[in-house]
Each structure stands twice: as C-alpha cells, then as structure tokens.
Amino acid sequence: MRGLWAVYRKELEDHFSSTRSILLLTVILMVGLVTAYTVGSGLRNVLEGMAKPSLVFLLLFTSTGAVFSLAQFIAFFGPLIGMVLGFDAINRERSARTLSKLLSQPIYRDAVINGKFLAGLTTIAIMLLAIVVLISGIGLLVLGVVPGWEEIGRMFVYLVVSVIYIGFWLALSILCSVLFRGMATSALATIALWIFFAFFMALVAKQAADVIAPIPSGASVSPEAVLKNDQVRSIISTVSPVILYSEATGIVLDPLRKTTRSLVLMGPMEQLSISRFQSPLPLIQSALIVAPHLVSLLAITVVCFGISYACFMRQEVRST
Amino acid sequence: MVLAIETHELTKRYGNQIAVDALTLDVKQGEIFGFLGPNGAGKTTTLLMLLGLSEPTSGTARVCGYDPTREPLQVKRLVGYLPENVGFYEDMTAIQNLTYVARLNGIRDSGLPGKIEGLLEQVGLLTEGRKRVGAYSRGMRQRLGIAEVLLKDPRAVFLDEPTLGLDPDGTQKMLDFIVGLGRDKGITVFFSSHLLDQVQRISDRVGIMLKGKLVAAGAIQELAKQKLGVDQERFTLEEIYMRYFREGVPAQS
Predict the structure, then answer these.
(1) Which residues of B touch A119 (CB under 8 A)?
(2) Could you say which of A18, A267, A297, B11 has the lowest number of CB atoms within 10 Å?
(3) Which residues pair with B216 in a beta bridge?
(4) Span A226-237, pLDDT tens digits
(5) Interface pTM (ipTM) of the complex?
(6) CB–CB of A164/A299 below 8 Å?
(7) What is the pTM of this model?
(8) Fold of the B3-171+179-219 domain
(9) Domain-wise residue ranges, chain B
C-alpha cells in the first residue's frame, strides 16, 4: 500500500503541474465556457415569457450551442483527456531509465501501474467535476433556474458514467504505452483506435448487419426482417464504447427519452404516444434502461486495464 | 563470518544464449568485491538477478540472507543499486527526486528534509539541490545516484560501472567514497567495472567473468600467484586479467 500511495501521489502532482495538462485543461475550459454561455443565452431567449418547465436544467447540457451541445463536447473531448494522461505512462519511464530505478525500490511491481491508473482516474474525475460545476454555475447565473433533486441525481449518474468512459480511454492508452516503446507510436495507436470507434464503427456495424441479417430488396419488406437487421446492428455496435456511452448518456440526460431505439423504426402510433405523453421518467427507470450499457462500459474498462496489467508484469526491465 | 552475497550455479538463459553460466561465488559482509569482465560478459545480468529484477533460469542466490527471487522486497530494502546510466525525473529537482525515492522506501516525511540535506552535503551537491536534474552533468548525476543509494541506509550496495565517464577528480572522489563505505561503514560493495587499475586500487577481492562464466575469484595477490608466478613482486591486475582473457573460457564446466 505504501508503494502504491507514493506512486499515486507523485503521478497526481505531475498531472496537475505539468505544462501538458495545464494546456489541455485551459483549452477544454475555454471551449466549455463559451459553449455554456451560448447555450445559456439561447435557452433564456427560448424560454422568455414561458412558465419555466421542470427539468430545464438538464437542457443546459443537451441543447445545441454554437457548434455542439455540452454533452457532445464532453463525449468528444473526454477520450482526448484520457489519452493525453496515459499515452506515455510506462514508455516514458522506460526511456528515461527511471523504470528500473522505481522497480529496485522495495515496492510491489504492480504499484507502478496501479498508481498511474488511479492517478489518471482521479485527475479525470476532478476535471469533469470542475467542468460540470462550472457550467452549472453559469447556467444558474444566466438562466436563473435552480436544479431539483432529480436533476442533480441525473447529473451525478452522468458524471459517473463519463468517468468510467474516459477511464476506458485512459486504460487503452496505458495499454499502448506498455506495448509500444515509442511515445509517439502509442499516442498514434490510441488515436487510431478512437477514430475507428468514433467514426467507422457505425458503418462497420451496418455492413455486418446487412451481411448477417439482410433486408431482402423488393416490393414487400417484412417488418420482422427490418427489425432483425436493426437488432443485429445494435448488438454489434455495443462493442464500441463510443456508441455505448452516447446511448447511455442520451437516456440519462434526457428524461423524456424512453428508449434507445431510433425514431425511424417506430411505427406512427408509437411516435404519436411519445409526442403525446410527455411525462418524464424518474431516474431509477432511466437507469434501468441503460443498465446494460453501464455494465458493459465498466466491463470493457476493467478488461482493458487487466490486459495492460498482465503485459506490464511480464515485461523484462533493463536499464542498459 | 556473515555472507552478504552467495550464489550457487546461478544461470540465466535468453532463448539459446547463455548470459550467465552456473555462477558460484560468495562475498563477505563489509567486503569490497570487484566484478570484472569485458562488455557482454554477463556482469549486469548478474547484478539484475541478485536484485530480483530478473528471474534466473536456474540456480539459487542469497543476498543479505534473503532469496531475491522469492523475497525481492526484503532484498531491495537492504541493497542500494546504482545502474550504469542512472535515470532521474528531469523535470524535478534533486531534492524532489530524493524525496520520491525516500517515500517509496517508506521513510517518514518528518526529518526527511534534514536527512536529504545531509546526504547532498556528503556528495557535494548541497548548493545544486534545488536545480532541475535535467541541468546536471554526468558527474553530478553519479553523485546524486550515490546519495539516492545511501538514502535507505543499505547493508550492501551494487554499483554498475560507477566511475565510467567521470573526470579524474570525480573518479578519485568516487573511489575514495567506495572505500569509505566498506572500511568505515561496513557496507558490502559489489561493483562491476572494466577499468582495471581502479579495481586494483580499491578491491579486497575480485572475480573475472568471461562469456558468462566466472573464470577466477579471489584476492588479487592469490590470482597473481596463480597466473604470474610466486615470485612476482610488482604486478598489475591488467596483466592478470589479460592472461585470463587470452586463455579464454576453460573447456570443462
């Protein structure tokens, strides 16, 4: 425990005092603040004169600002934070020859990688908490709306899910730093994986679904075939953490959304019922809908870290 | 007599290559033992195995009474290691580097600044203590490495080429320092080098490694008798070593 604590403490100090982290945090804060202000003003104009509907606070995070909504912004930049914190975790120590110095101290070998991962997670949690609280503060000022308990509960769940999601990217970048000797190589590998999951996974899932459960072209298209195609597509796309996260946060942040299925596939009656009955779901119900997503996210993060742990423990350490 | 280091048939194989072949030696507590050999003879691999940083293929070793493969933490608590190219965190100052290593060793924070100052003064780095290590010269890094090794009050220190790349003044100071460790503090010094005149100056006993095998071990006097004849009064370790080197590794195991 002592070795773990010492490594954790030093890595945390590094994360908050290094030039790299300060730059990253500044960029994120700038974009976040600008978007928050734009969204806030936009909402204020829209809600002018209306009796304020309940659950308006969450709209601060989901309505589109200048270019994107705040939830989209965190979904996009979150992985970047995780990657920057982890891409040189192990290979920098190896090339500076400090890894063999660390391992010749009386600490357990896994204290090194555990300490780095935990310090990264803590940094992510603090950064996210700061951004969310800051944006909530701006919302309070601009909108004049105080969040209720339901909204605070949803914000909390959103924070936890986001930390786990960004923790996945942290684990992935640490894995690349264990496997690759060069820091640039591990950074590029992580970015490549992110681009694949973010942009190409949807296409791959669609193609795979068309191969496995094709919709027969022709005049009569049975609804079963279309449904099966969509089911296969959504099962394949649960491999991607990006899609898991966007679906999960979509439900958590928007209490009016009751399903993860896209609107296109619902019949006209279902669409009518959704537009008619605008009653928001309580938090527990929303959480139940996305429980599989949350469990999957947690599982892939843990598996990813487990692989990097196993690889690190078996590696040979020489300083010459 | 307490043995600081003893090995028995210690072997390390990398695939088909034998890096260390059935090494059997012992070093007494408080002794200064020089480990000689050309580059690639297996000196560093032996050091790594004795520290528990590398797992031997076969054979056993005991360092300060503990088995480095099974009880590495005990060994690392008692043994300080100065590698050939010691690494530091370049963005941190010397004091910060030493503080980190002290914490890893479980040394309490109270009294730590005083202890670190004392060590820096011993190695002559007190005025540069607050500078970033990135700005240090090689001689300063070696001295900081020694301070780091002494941080844990070790019973034995392993030094891999401690004087390599140092200027004559730095070399002399380092050698004096090593002798002081052994004579004054009773710390066992196990160091590897190929700078034979320096090894001759300070070692109590030496061991010569060639291609992974220990071809000779003992006091320099004894080795001189064996190789150069009983009546030789003036001899250098270099002469002894070159005799061994030219003969190569003996055929029998």
Answers:
(1) none
(2) A267
(3) B208
(4) 888 888 888 888
(5) 0.86
(6) no
(7) 0.87
(8) Rossmann fold (3.40.50)
(9) 3-171+179-219
